Amino acid sequence: MSHKIKFNLNKQQNKKPLEEQPNEKISISISTSMESKKKSENIDKKNIKEKKIFVKPVLLDNNLYKQFKNHNFSKIDLHGLTVDQAHQKLIEYFSINYKKKNLFHIVVTGLGNKTNGEEFFTGKIRRQFPFWLDTENFQFMIKSYSPCKIQHGGLGAFYIKLKSKE
Predict the structure, then answer these.
(1) pTM assigned to the model
(2) Does 121 have pLDDT greater than 50?
(3) What rounded mean pLDDT belongs to the chain?
(4) Can you spell out the DSSP letters for 45-112?
């Protein structure tokens, strides 16, 4: 349970130096649960009117690999595709599996085949993948992700858990 704190600081029209001005009191009011409930209902009504849907961001879950031990999962390999082709293929793949309620997936992006100085993970798709997860297309379907353990592809692959369709 979190409380919101509001500060109301009145600006004085005095142009006196700070030393000559009286100290102002700051009051903090914590609204009751009924007040905050009414405020949230008003916000919800505004959002419905504006027809905006807020989607939760995709979470980085470092313990996701544990769920892959007990569940069946599908694998998609993006080797040999351009960045745009991989992006479109992932949108289609996740859309189909989201509708079918297949929750667990491994996305193989690859590590890239060149080193760039001290950087080893130079694969274009691998670099773009976390940014794609921040887009609304993916946030709607994907609940969490994590880099894979070595037995499932290592750092060149990601565990993905889709949201269960409600």
Answers:
(1) 0.63
(2) yes
(3) 76
(4) HHHHHHT----PPPEE-TTTHHHHHHS--EEEE-TT--HHHHHHHHHHHHHHHHHHT--EEEEE----
